[in-house]
Amino acid sequence: MQYRTISNGTTSFEVSTLCLGAMNFGTITDAVTSQQILDRFVEAGGTFVDTANNYSAWAGGHGRDSEDVLGDWIARRGGLGDVRLATKLGAAKKDPALPLQNVEPTNFQGLSAEVVAWEARESLRHLGIDRLDVLYGHVDDRETPVAETVAAFGELQREGLVGISGISNIAVWRLVEAREEALRQGVDPYGVIQQGYSYVYPSPGFGRTNDVSADLLDYVASAGVDGRPPLTITAYSPLHQGAFTRDDKPMWPAMRHASNRDRVRVLHDVAAELGATPNQVALAWLMGGEAPVIPVIGPSTVAQLEELLGAADLVLDDDVRARLDTADLDVRAPVAA
């Protein structure tokens, strides 16, 4: 296993370069299997686990199923030990009687000071711990003043309840605005941003703010200097729920374009030449770029986890990276008039 330091400029700690996503724990993945996955991940050197306060309300759960499974696991092992735990708030149901969805009306709680203060403490209670290593705002809330949200996370840090704050599903300009506001207030800025990111990329579309963009990668790579504290990307859905290797798992509609078909073909060719799997190569590609990226993997069985662990020490040489990077250039090249 390899490791990376995440930091907000004041608080820093080391985490494994693979993060275990616990979204389906306690719902789609039963509690026993979930704990077996957690045990094996830690045994293999994994030290970063990711959950949220609404996992998985859409899969027959009550919303904190994953946090509760993790709480039981933490209690069984007598504490977190070297494991760093991240959870999220703000995207649980505002009205329990209405559905939770990604299109309007979303029914998200949002990131008001009241929600941030209350939900952080509820997560601590369900997890059975007294401090969160990382706490994200789950979805950007444009109806709450950014100064209010930033101050609320800053207060949790001052109280010692949160180590590093983060944000997820946000436009780059909003991220920069929030980090600058934190510096104005004299509180630690977001040190982690979680966005959708993988070897394939979506078709352009106005309003798509949930994905890693070239601008975000450039901004993150430029951080870690005076006036611009460090920032790390955690990448969700890095394998598109198995779409790189399974015909029964099509990629999301925005990903189904000619450039990505070419990239997946090259991904398979490179994997075969390296004696690795396409999933392992895709994860290694994410971890080895110029900007610090930590993929959030979501295995539902120990066997799936074993495959993904094989990416932890897979380092792609420069020629292989260049081949993967340019796999779709012929498809994207403009046609001469």
Q: What percent of residues adopt helix (DSSP H or I)?
A: 25-40%
Second-tier CATH architecture: Alpha-Beta Barrel
Number of domains: 1
Shape: globular
Q: Please list the strands of the largest sheet in the order they lie side by side.
A: 3-4-5-6-7-8-9-10
Mean pLDDT: 94
Radius of gyration: 19 Å
Structural class: alpha/beta
N- and C-termini, Cα separation: 50 Å
CATH class: Alpha Beta
Strand content: 5-15%
Pfam families: Aldo_ket_red
InterPro entries: AKR_Detox_Biosynth, NAD(P)_OxRdtase_dom_sf, NADP_OxRdtase_dom
Protein name: Aldo/keto reductase
Organism: Microbacterium helvum
Structure description:
It is a single chain. This protein has 337 residues and is α/β, with parallel strands linked by helices. It has helices at 31-43, 65-77, 113-127, 146-158, 172-185, 214-222, 258-274, 278-287, 302-309, 318-325, 329-332; strands at residues 3-7, 12-16, 19-21, 48-50, 84-89, 132-137, 162-168, 192-196, 232-236, 293-297. The protein has a single domain (13-240, 280-316), classed as NADP-dependent oxidoreductase domain (TIM Barrel). The model is unreliable at 333-337 (pLDDT under 50). It has 11 helices and 10 strands. Helix 1 (31-43) runs parallel beside helix 9 (302-309), helix 3 (113-127) packs parallel to helix 4 and helix 4 crosses helix 5. The chain has an 8-stranded parallel barrel. The chain has a two-stranded antiparallel sheet with strand order 1-2. Strand 3, helix 1 and strand 4 form a beta-alpha-beta unit.
